[in-house]
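Customer ticket, subject: "Can you confirm the structure for DUF3108 domain-containing protein?"

Message body: Hello, I'm evaluating your service for our small team and ran a test protein. I'd like someone to confirm that this is what the system normally returns, since I don't have a reference to compare against.
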Amino acid sequence: MLIPEGVSGAEAACRFTVTPEPQAAAGPGINGSAARSRPQQPEGDAATATAFPTPPFSFVTLSSQSRSFLLPQYIFVCTLRIGANRITTVSTHAEVIIMAILSVDGAYITLEAPFHPELSPQARRYRGRFVGKGKWRFEAKWESDLRAMCHMLFGVDGRPETVADQVDLTVAVEENGRSPLFRRFHDDIYLGGRQVAGVLKGRLIPRPGKGIRFVRGEPLLEHKGLQWWLWIPTGSEFIIRGVPRMAVPFMESKLDGHGRLLTAQAA
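Agent reply: Thanks for trying us out. I re-ran your input and got the following:
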């Protein structure tokens, strides 16, 4: 085991159980593809890094100290501090997807979440302060309200262990004509907190959102003078990668009258 099972408490930034065989950074990666080169450590950094070929990892505990956490089967970086020593492990994949994670640290709570059009006004209700890189800071007294906000916007409770249990969803677009979800005026298309389609800034070119792959159809842009509508035609199908299992019922509820969930497979 890479990290002793007995490690716990505030010294441990992260503890997980995994017994991979270290390999060269250029060795085979996921699905037989070549792994990325290992990120270079800063000069003078005593950390050691090891590339692992096949995530996901099994999380045991997480805390907010000395932590860099990106979800399994994408890019995962975990730093463990024990006294003056530090161990860093890295696994690789092509894309990073982070859903809402709350980290409690003394008198404050940090929310790390992707952009959502309703997140900023909701966060202001609880006197949240944006601190950059997708993170908001709140007083700890708002914890229960913030977990309810995460569920309302993303369908999760903000706990790392529930966010890490993920599935890939296949969705069919079937608009019934009333208040279409998959047709937006001068705006991106969202489903359950995930951006399904957007428009490149300054170029007006439609594109899939992060972690979205279309298997039938594609996002389209309709122009009328200086105005435009982004839409996904009925009959289109797309895969949303890395959806927390906890959020699946939430996603299904958002599809009511607009489409249906075809499959949910382990990520």
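A couple of notes from the result: The first strand starts at residue 14 and ends at 17. The chain has three domains: 14-91, 101-164, 167-266. Feel free to reply with more questions.
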